[in-house]
Design a protein that fits this description.
This protein is an all-alpha fold. It contains four helices and no strands.
Length: about 120
């Protein structure tokens, strides 16, 4: 794979992680405001944003060990995002349930991608 293709793939994952964080934020805006949703969404916002932030840090790492650590954190944050999506109250709205399912699938895919990067890097 050429250097251009490699940097393009890295950019695509940067964008994918950023889009995940944006999609999570858009979804949160559609949810009913409840005490539990407010608390759970705070945690979800942090975790979903941390997926991409740690991936960017991994790409700027100074060592292989540092790279792997940040990729593992990205994977952990995707897993945490998936968890915090589950208890949210959607007030039974079909469209919200579908969006949640889509976000859970994307979090799972990101976890799998980062897991594959870790396996190849160790």
């Amino acid at each position: 794979m050429s250097e251009t293709e490699e940097s393009s793939k890295r950019y695509d994952l940067d964008e994918r992680a950023l889009q995940f964080a944006r999609d999570v934020r858009a979804f949160i805006k559609t949810l009913p405001r409840t005490v539990t949703n407010d608390e759970d969404t705070r945690r979800l916002v942090r975790a979903s944003g941390s997926v991409g932030a740690n991936y960017i840090e991994a790409n700027d790492s100074l060592s292989k060990k540092d790279f792997v650590m940040h990729i593992k954190i990205s994977r952990k944050e995707a897993k945490e995002s998936r968890y915090w999506l589950r208890p949210l109250d959607t007030a039974g709205r079909e469209s919200s349930e579908q969006t949640r399912g889509s976000l859970i699938r994307e979090a799972t895919e990101l976890m799998n991608i980062f897991g594959g990067i870790v396996r190849k890097s160790e």
